[in-house]
Design goal:
single chain; about 425 residues; alpha+beta; 13 helices
């Protein structure tokens, strides 16, 4: 049996060589379908990795109070706006919450986004205007899963005394202090000199953008330099014991409603996000994306299969006389069927390998261009291999059967 298969593989390659252009076109048709399947699933895997990285970078078992939830509800004058206007979360609201929240196994952090696209200087160089400034308290890095790679974190005393200290990300370290230790060196932000006391450990970029272009300064100092009357603050609570998460969550909502002076019948006038709900939403989105990617790939594969079947039927017609000669010298219907079936499989296999390689390449390029993590999509490759066998079987079965049933006398008369 193996000898028959080996002989038919040799015949298949001889046939491919004799009709090289047609074979290449056929392989490319198959390659395009497999490339669409693998490429789409690879991009989806990158998106999943980006979302997962974002959740990990934000920390687990935590919840955040903010002015609004993420969704926009209506359009007004061509712009998306919130249907209900929530009062901002002021520093007083945040400060009161932190002082009054006495739950066990929980850590509270206050922060606000001070500015973006800022140019940072030292005594020699300056950067592109791309950095983001955050005013943070002494708990922020712990609550939000940032690690200090060099130097130290802010202390409560640093925050209270508005020390001109800064913790910088890896991007700024590379741009201003390449091959130097930035600790205890100065940076200048809007004319203010800050001493670098810490460098954040590098984080992988995610769907929110780069995680390494951040600069942290003490909260009270940030309020005096960047703060505005309309500044919005965020309150983040990290629960260290998962068993107490729900009780701490309920206590936090009650306290926040009390601070906002809400009546029991009134809805919350603040936004709220939970890390555990985000994980659930991620799974739902990932499942939907995979189904969509599979449907897109299957539609493309279906078109490729039909095209391959038609090309093989044309090949059978053109090689009718060859089939008659083979039957005349003793080849039975099974051997003829096996010949065309193996030929279809060889073409499909070669096209599939090309498609997998190009699909991975496209996935890699898209992932890098969108700053998403790239991982080898073994599920996509496994699915592609299954699809290759399925396409070869479906596309080759009828042409091979038709070739095997040709009458040898009629076949020999065919011109």
């Amino acid at each position: 049996m193996w000898k028959i298969i080996n002989d038919n593989i040799s015949i298949a390659f001889d046939s491919i060589k004799s009709q090289l252009l047609r074979a290449i076109i056929t392989m490319l048709i198959i390659a395009f379908g497999i490339m669409a399947l693998v490429g789409t699933l690879t991009v989806v895997k990158g998106i999943e990795g980006s979302f997962s990285s974002s959740l990990q970078s934000m920390g687990s078992n935590k919840f955040t109070f903010k002015r609004y939830n993420n969704q926009f509800l209506k359009k007004k004058h061509g712009k998306r706006v919130h249907e209900k206007i929530n009062p901002r979360i002021s520093y007083r609201d945040a400060f009161n919450f932190k002082n009054r929240y006495d739950a066990e196994n929980a850590l509270v952090s206050i922060s606000f986004f001070a500015g973006r696209d800022l140019e940072i200087k030292n005594n020699i160089d300056k950067t592109d205007p791309k950095y983001k400034i955050y005013g943070i308290d002494e708990n922020y890095t712990k609550v939000n899963a940032f690690e200090i790679e060099k130097g130290k974190d802010f202390s409560a005393k640093d925050i209270a005394n508005s020390k001109y200290y800064a913790i910088i990300g890896k991007d700024l370290e590379k741009e201003l202090f390449d091959h130097q230790n930035p600790i205890d060196k100065e940076i200048i932000i809007r004319g203010n000199r800050f001493k670098v006391i810490g460098v954040l450990k590098s984080k992988q970029s995610n769907f929110t953008g780069s995680q390494n272009d951040k600069i942290f300064i003490p909260l009270n100092l940030a309020r005096s330099i960047f703060g505005k009357s309309a500044s919005n603050y965020r309150i983040t609570v990290a629960v260290t014991d998962k068993k107490t998460y729900e009780s701490n969550f309920g206590k936090a909502i009650s306290l926040m409603r009390n601070i906002r002076k809400l009546q029991p019948s009134q809805e919350n006038n603040f936004g709220l996000s939970r890390s555990d709900r985000l994980e659930g939403e991620l799974k739902e989105v990932s499942s939907s994306l995979n189904i969509l990617a599979f449907i897109i790939g299957m539609i493309t594969i279906l078109g490729s299969s039909i095209a391959l079947m038609n090309i093989m039927l044309v090949s059978v017609t053109e090689r009718t006389r060859e089939i008659g000669v083979r039957k005349a010298i003793g080849a039975n219907s099974f051997l003829i069927m096996m010949q065309f079936f193996v030929e279809t499989f060889v073409i499909t296999f070669l096209g599939g390998v090309i498609g997998i390689l190009f699909g991975l390449l496209i996935g890699f390029i898209v992932a890098k261009s969108m700053s998403m993590p790239f991982g080898m999509p073994w599920n996509a490759i496994s699915m592609a291999i299954i699809v290759i066998f399925a396409v070869a079987f479906i596309s080759g079965l009828y042409p091979a059967y038709k070739a095997s049933k040709l009458d040898p006398i009629q076949a020999l008369r065919y011109e």
